[in-house]
Design a protein that fits this description.
The protein is mainly beta. The protein has three domains: about 35-140, Immunoglobulin-like (Sandwich); about 145-255 and about 360-475, no CATH class; about 260-355, no CATH class. The protein is about 10% helix and about 45% strand. The chain is built from six helices and 38 strands. The protein has an eight-stranded antiparallel beta sheet, with helices on one face. It has a five-stranded mixed beta sheet with strand order 5-1-2-10-9, with no helix packed on it. A hairpin with a 2-residue loop joins strand 3 and strand 4. The N and C termini lie far apart (about 110 Å). The model is unreliable at about 1-35 (pLDDT under 50). It comes from Methylomusa anaerophila. Keywords: Signal.
């Protein structure tokens, strides 16, 4: 019995050794050799035209597939399940401004990848045809695709991609119906003139549904141009430039606006105001109010008087605190000499005007130039003395327009990138007309051009990230209070 048990154990060990060797042999064979390909590419062909590049894969049986797009580098990837390439081609190179080449390679376990390398942005369509079985990839070069979605009743977001002879353009437009209970108004970065802030926190603080960048600004945050908030002048234009303004009844107008301000002293003499809420220059008289900052930030080479309820409450050399219910007049040179005899308690009258209509405006913001007036293209680039930094060539653009039925258009065009080349001012004006604007104006552009919807950046700023701004235009629930 003992010998029988040993013999049985010997045969059992031989059997297990055989099975183990068989398993090791199976594991040594590449997995792809044991996978049933299911689908075989028998032929690959392509064609080119001005409108598209077409790539056709002929199969014995159409496989399951998944399409993936990559942005950096720009690629269209088809993952083909259970497929092998027996067409005799693994790469096709194209002489085309959009499509670079097609590459095929095994991705393991019976999977195949077809990668289309691209030079510029594109639209695509992937579909199949039976009898014979074909999978077709169309890279569309001439396209014009518009996607419209409702952000909330009364506000539509339009994402518009189109090809042009010079390259692709991608634009975003907000169509806002004020009659649906929405207000368009400007806001300041950090709530004050001094300093900069990105658009998302500005939008969040205003509890805005959407926002775009606003006026031109200096590196310290100083607004370049007109800004009026809650009926108070926050910043003034150096020369007449285009602005939008909101009247007490909620109506929005677009026009060129100029500023005039003066200070009347107790003896009847008047001094012209040079500006509001910016750095004081030689021989200037600047008015600072609570929108600027906590203090005037001025140098000690002048004189400053604090005005509360029309009377001088304090006199300082520089960097005066700005009262929330008053203003500070900061003078230098000739203006300071005239004001040198003032004393605490003296009455001082400050007068400011933007013109009969604009004095009634509750909110206003300027940038420029004008783009469309009375339903016609009307570029005021030279009139408003804009240089090549604004007027030159294609760039990212932001614009505001009014339609015939009173809707407000806020538009951002991406630029300086492979997915969008931007627009010239003329192209922006024509695009605003195409969207339905009867009047339109240009806002700050370049790396500042940005649109936020519900705290999310929807466009692609050319800096690759949000730029810090001086101001923004927001869309909020509500109406102007009469």
């Amino acid at each position: 019995m003992k010998g029988f048990r040993n013999l049985t154990a010997f045969h059992s060990a031989r059997r297990w050794g055989f099975f183990l060797a068989l398993i090791l042999c199976l594991l040594a064979v590449p997995a792809q050799a044991w996978a049933d390909p299911g689908s075989i590419i028998t032929k690959i062909r392509s064609s080119q035209s001005a409108e598209r590049v077409r790539i056709v894969f002929e199969f014995n049986n159409i496989p399951q597939y998944k399409v993936t797009t990559l942005e950096n580098p720009l690629r269209l990837v088809l993952n083909l399940s259970g497929s092998v390439n027996q067409a005799g081609l693994s790469q096709i190179t194209f002489n085309d401004p959009i499509v670079s080449k097609l590459r095929l390679f095994a991705a393991g376990a019976g999977k195949l990848q077809a990668v289309v390398d691209l030079k510029s942005t594109y639209m695509y369509n992937v579909f199949t045809i039976k009898n014979p079985d074909r999978l077709i990839v169309d890279i569309i070069k001439n396209y014009d695709q518009k996607l419209v979605e409702e952000v909330t009743p009364g506000i539509k977001h339009i994402s518009w991609q189109r090809s042009t002879g010079d390259g692709p353009v991608w634009a975003h437009a907000l169509d806002v119906d004020p009659q649906a209970g929405y207000l368009i108004k400007p806001v300041l970065s950090n709530g004050i003139v001094q300093g900069l802030e990105t658009l998302v926190p500005m939008s969040q603080r205003a509890r805005a549904i959407a926002a775009v960048n606003g006026s031109y600004f200096a590196p310290d945050g100083t607004i370049i141009g007109l800004l009026k908030m809650d009926g108070q002048i926050v910043s003034t234009p150096e020369l007449p430039r285009t602005a939008f303004g909101i009247l007490p009844d909620g109506k929005i107008i677009i026009d060129q606006v100029d500023y005039e301000g003066k200070v009347e002293l107790p003896d009847g003499r008047t001094i012209p105001l040079s500006a509001v809420n910016r750095e004081r220059g030689p021989d200037e008289l600047i008015l600072y109010n609570s929108f600027y900052d906590a203090t005037t930030r001025s140098n000690p080479y002048g004189i400053e008087v604090t005005i509360i309820n029309g009377k001088i409450a304090a006199i300082n050399d520089n960097n005066s605190p700005i009262p929330p219910d008053g203003a500070v007049l900061s003078a230098h040179g000739a203006a300071a000499k005239i004001m040198s005899g003032l004393k605490i308690g003296d009455e001082v009258k400050i007068s400011q005007t933007l013109g009969t209509v604009w004095d009634k405006i509750t909110w206003a913001l300027s940038a420029g130039p004008m783009l469309v007036k009375d339903n016609s293209v009307f570029l005021t680039t030279k009139i408003e003395e804009f240089g090549p930094d604004v007027a030159g060539g294609r760039a990212p653009r932001t614009a505001l327009g009014i339609t015939a039925d009173g809707h407000i258009l806020l538009v951002v065009v991406d630029g300086r990138q492979s997915t969008s080349i931007g627009m010239t001012l003329l192209e922006t004006a024509l695009f605003m007309q195409e969207l339905g604007a009867t009047d339109a104006m240009n806002l700050d552009g370049g790396g500042s051009s940005e649109m936020v919807i519900r705290d999310t950046v929807v466009n692609k700023p050319s800096d690759g990230q949000e730029r810090k701004l001086g101001s923004a235009v927001v869309v909020i629930p509500g109406r102007i209070a009469n």
